[in-house]
Amino acid sequence: MPLLVTDHSWTQTESMVFISVPLKGAKKVDIVSSDEYLKVHFPPFLLEVFPSELVDDEQSSAKIGNGVAVISLTKRTNKLWEHLSINDKETKREVRERALSKMQEKLAAEAKNRSEKKHNEKKYTLKKMMNIESEEREIIQKMKDEERERTTAELEAWQLKESKKTEEEARLKLQSQSNQLSKVRAVKHKSESDGSGGSKVIFGDEAERKKKQVDLPAPRVAGNIQVSFTPRVFPTALRESLEDWHPTPVSLCSPQWLKKQAEARRVVSADIEELNDLREEERNPDWLKEKGNKCFAAGNYLSALNAYNLAIRLNRKIPALYSNRAACHLKLRNFHKAIEDSSQALELLTPAISANAAARARAHVRRGSAFCQLELYAEGLQDYQTALKIDPSNEALQVDTQKIRDIIQGSAE
């Protein structure tokens, strides 16, 4: 039960009320206020004020310094109060319930606004990225069109040039054949007129072929080309696929598998000298988890904690190890460590699906228990309510949640 603060003081003007609360060395102060309720909580002390008149919560303020919290409340009506707080117990209970209900609604509205703002920011970012990508595609398409037009123009120019060249070669060839035929006729006519024997005539085509044979280049000199292969990332056959969509059930060289193996090697190599002293089964996280469970069931919480610590050093991706270690910390009253391990377990238990519902409920209950042990009942209530949403038929969980509500409302026995 929290200790009620009785040594606070207050002063007023016609428009303001100033409340001074000594913090007694507290490092963390939780202040909750509304138009008709004020709570100052710094464990294990608690101050509740039920103003006799309504105040303006939006214009009120609080300052903390030099071991004192000064709360400034703005009155809705300008007049002096006869007393600071109302004394009727029933009225206090109703005011407290209304204030806590409004606070929960306010927190829910703020969370919704944050979610909507984040969603709108993501939507705006996505729209901007799509516009940028569209502009880039237009630029690329424009470059492609320009390159296509330039290439087409060059091809047409080359085709025209080749056509002219072919026509010119055909014309020259026809002219050469005509000249050769004229020469043959002239030689034949001369031979017939002289009465001499036929002479050997070398036509132009044969002479050109002989000339081309003489002008052929010499064979190229043989040489060697140096080839260097990329070293393998992992000693497996090169025919194995490294893609994520490899059709085999387990690809021993997929990027995910290689990443997990590298991470495991880093963890083991960090403590290789210490791990060399362990037996083969003691290097198995599953065996260590079972050993920790047996020690916990026997009440040997320190041994269970050591087993879970070693298992986590070997594999940091098993949420049950963090959740079980949080249970050990609860038994050993290491509440801050219990909160840390429970939070780590919940982080690993994402996304939230039906298969991990029971594990998530246990982690929420263990973190909520640690919060309550630290007298942070509001935070503990949130974890218990989350666990109750996961397992609404759990009667023990319903009873514990109601007890925390009663403590917060100040009606616990």
Keywords:
413 residues, alpha+beta, Immunoglobulin-like, Serine Threonine Protein Phosphatase 5, Tetratricopeptide repeat, four-stranded mixed beta sheet, four-stranded antiparallel beta sheet, 11 helices, 57% helix, 11% strand, TPR_rpt, TPR repeat, neurogenesis
Tell me the helix content. Answer: 55-70%
Q: How many distinct helices?
A: 11
What sort of overall outline do the alpha carbons produce when their principal axes are compared? elongated
Number of strands: 8
Beta-strand residue percentage: 5-15%
Span between termini: 9 Å
Largest sheet features? 4 strands, mixed
Low-confidence stretches: 197-203, 238-251
With strands numbered from the N-terminus, the spatial order across the biggest sheet is: 1-6-5-4
The top-level CATH class of the domain at 317-409 is Mainly Alpha
Which structural category fits the helices and strands? alpha+beta
Task: From the alpha carbons, calculate the radius of gyration and give it in angstroms.
Answer: 45 Å
What order do the SSEs take from the amino end to the carboxyl end, as H and E?
EEEEEEEEHHHHHHHHHHH
Q: State the CATH architecture of the domain at 317-409.
A: Alpha Horseshoe
CATH topology of the domain at 317-409: Serine Threonine Protein Phosphatase 5, Tetratricopeptide repeat
| CATH 4th-level superfamily of the domain at 317-409 | Tetratricopeptide repeat domain
Mean pLDDT figure:
82
Protein name: Dynein axonemal assembly factor 4
Subcellular location: Cell projection, Neuron projection; Dynein axonemal particle; Nucleus
GO cellular component, one term: neuron projection
Domain CS: 3-85
